Amino acid sequence: MTDLSTAAPEIPGRPATPAPTAPRRKAAGGSAGRSGRAVLKHAAMIVASIIMIYPLLWMVVSSLRPNEEIFRNASLWPLSFDIDNYVRGWTAQSFDFGHYILNSTLLVVGCVIGNLFACTLTAYAFARLRFWGRNIAFAVMLMTLMLPIHVVIVPQYIMFSQTGWVNTMLPLILPKFLATDAFFIFLMVQFIRGIPRELDEAARIDGCGHLRIFFRIVLPLMTPALATTTIFTFMWTWNDFFGSLIYLTTPDHFTVPLALKSYLDSQGSSDWGAMFAMSIVSLVPLFLVFLFGQKFLVRGFATTGIK
Amino acid sequence: MSAVGELTQIVSRRKKGGVREKHPDNKISLVFMAPWLIGLLGITIIPMIASFALSFTDYSLLAPPEFVGLANFREMLGDTRLHHSLVVTFTYVIVGTPLQLIAALLLAVVLNQGMKGLSFYRSVFYLPSLMGGSVAISILWRQMFGADGLVNRFLGMLGFTDLPGWVSNPDTALWTIILLHVWTFGSPMIIFLAGLRQIPQMYYEAASVDGASKVSQFFRITIPLLTPIIFFNLVLQVINAFQTFTQAFVVSGGTGGPSDSTLFYTLYLYQKGFTQFDMGYASAMAWLLLVIVAIFTAINFFVSKFWVHYDD
Fold first, then answer.
1. Nearest-angstrom CA–CA distance, A241 and A133
2. InterPro entries in the record, alphabetically (chain A) (predicted)?
3. What is the Cα–Cα distance from B213 to A34, expressed in whole angstroms?
4. How far is A92 from A266, CA to CA, in rounded Å?
5. B67: phi then psi, degrees, rounded to nearest 5
6. What is the 3-state secondary structure (H, E, C) of chain A?
7. Mean of pLDDT values over B256-275
8. Which residues of chain A have pLDDT under 50?
């Protein structure tokens, strides 16, 4: 039942995850039927890839086209490099788009710090400490993973409106410092369980308390899990619309998703070019994270998903 | 082991009653657990109780809550927009989730056969699932499925003319959002891929020696060994699908239109609670959502006994 091999693939001295299934075609490779099927399979995959990615590519290409061209041209060709849409979209609202990017960045930084701080502490306790009620607490934590946010959002809103925090980022950041993202706790618990206990025990014998074991031994070994948490928190916070929509009411506090929404409201469907341009701007950070953090994203899913 | 698997294990172990554990770390664990405990109490449990209490009141933030008994729930019985939003949401969950998971499973199986360019295809299929929840993609969808949008351009090339806007037609608007959901099959696909790699190669070799075809290997080996992961994906995707909001909000411009055809339950809840500030009614709706999600999850867990195989 324990499946530690998936939890911490990078801990030294333990076999890595089983190698990917060996190519099954190899043994019988070479015959015409086999290679014909391989070609067919690749053809099918290429078609599927194009269908999947076409809308995104078309949005990029269209954002660089004049407005009337967007409706006329469904193909990616001819390319044009008209940055007019970007110029118009950037300054179209009461603040430059950079202002919203800055707001979103601040929110992301706050949420990342909160999650890293609170989830590591909680995960260490669940994975390493023996205390009264641990199993029940762990089950409760797993259940909060499945709790719809709507069942707490109304009282939370009332609470934060009484403290005067509506239209600030505090209602969106504070909960992260209180370990409300159970997904990451679970991910980290899985990871810490994969760290050999001998390391802690050696430190204990040297007289280290749990706080020092946590900071000196476990935390430094957790960097892959911390990276995964950072990347996921970034993506989810950057995309989060519901929270911003409820708590942020004036344009000076708008995040990127909210700015896009209010732009759409004010424009209707009259200026797709500029709207596409700002949409692309909002997707670029996600794309960069995807490009450079894919390893951690995939591992995060794999770790929490197995069995 | 996944969150779902672990939860099942804890619950079943509790029934048996284990050995008495010792708790040497009670004091220090309070330090480590403090943020989570405060959060659980202040951000989750107390608001949940408050939300339950509010569901029996009439409250608009301006005046103190007024106790109205079961009036909110009685109103819900007769609220046709609410009933409609349930139909919309159920359609989305019951059609969209299986389609998304089937796409994810099929492509994971194909990709797992050690084909060249695996990482490229994986990236291409995964990328949409990272962006699918964003406002930007919903804006794109609104253009694509509009009367003059990308989809109709393509259909026009194929000879179809006078096509309506898919998002402005009440019969098709919901389906464009379901399609968006299916388009984001990348994240369950990654989980399936990781699961497929855990299946020992020797099972397939043994089956091949016995003369089993690829198809029967898929149904007799791959699927049974993957059931815990299919189950995990199913539980989480159903719970997530019930909470879909951004796509419906942006595609319909916040109205749930045309003719309430994209009035997702969460969108209606938002309208009630945060545009009409009918906090009592919104709380009652939130609790109904909780009950529905809990029932769906319980059914999933119950039915899982008959089709999910844990190999221990």
1. 36
2. MetI-like (IPR000515), MetI-like_sf (IPR035906)
3. 15
4. 10
5. -70, 125
6. CCCHHHHCCCCCCCCCCCCCCCCCCHHHCCCHHHHHHHHHHHHHHHHHHHHHHHHHHHHHHHHCCCHHHHHHCCCCCCCCCCCHHHHHHHCCCCCCHHHHHHHHHHHHHHHHHHHHHHHHHHHHHHHHCCCCCHHHHHHHHHHHCCCCCHHHHHHHHHHHHHCCCCCCCHHHHHHHHCCCCHHHHHHHHHHHHCCCHHHHHHHHHCCCCHHHHHHHHHHHHCHHHHHHHHHHHHHHHHHCCHHHHHHCCCHHHCCHHHHHHHHHHHHCCCCHHHHHHHHHHHHHHHHHHHHHHHHHHHHHHHHHHCC
7. 94
8. 1-30, 306-307
- Does any CB of chain A come closer than 8 Å to the CB of residue B86? no
Structural domain containing residue A212: 94-305
**Which among B154, B204, B250 has CB closest to A74?**
B154
A287 belongs to a structural domain: yes
Contact check, Cβ <8 Å, A129/B28: yes
Please indicate, yes or no, if residue B84 is contained in any of the structural domains.
yes
- Where does a domain end: A82, A102, A117? A82
pTM of structure: 0.89
Evaluate whether B234 touches B97 at the Cβ level (below 8 Å).
yes
**Which chain B residues have a beta carbon less than 8 Å from that of A150?**
243, 266, 269, 285-286, 289-290
- ipTM score for this prediction: 0.90
Residue with tokens 């950070």: A285
Q: What is the CATH number of the domain that holds A248?
A: 1.10.3720.10
Tell if the CB–CB gap between A260 and B136 is shorter than 8 Å: yes
- The region of weakest confidence among A288-302, B74-88, B92-106, B162-176 is A288-302
Residue B67 pairs with which residues in a beta bridge? Answer: B57
For helices B71-78 and B279-307, what crossing angle results, to 10°?
A: 70
Structure tokens at A131: 């205390």
Of A52, A135, A235, nearest to B124 by CB-CB distance is A52
What CATH number should be reported for the domain holding residue B184? 1.10.3720.10
Write out the two tokens for A92: 């179209």
Residues A77 and A209 in one domain: no
A2 belongs to a structural domain:
no
Whether the CB of B292 is below 8 Å from some CB of chain A: the reply is no
Q: Quick: pLDDT tens for B239-260.
A: 999 999 999 999 998 899 898 9
CB of A239 within 8 Å of any CB in chain B?
A: yes
Determine the distance in angstroms separating the CA of B262 from the nearest CA of chain A, rounded to an integer.
Answer: 17
In this structure, is the dihedral angle defined by the CA atoms of residues B103, B104, B109 and B115, taken in order, positive or negative? positive
Q: Are residues A199 and A98 in the same domain?
A: yes
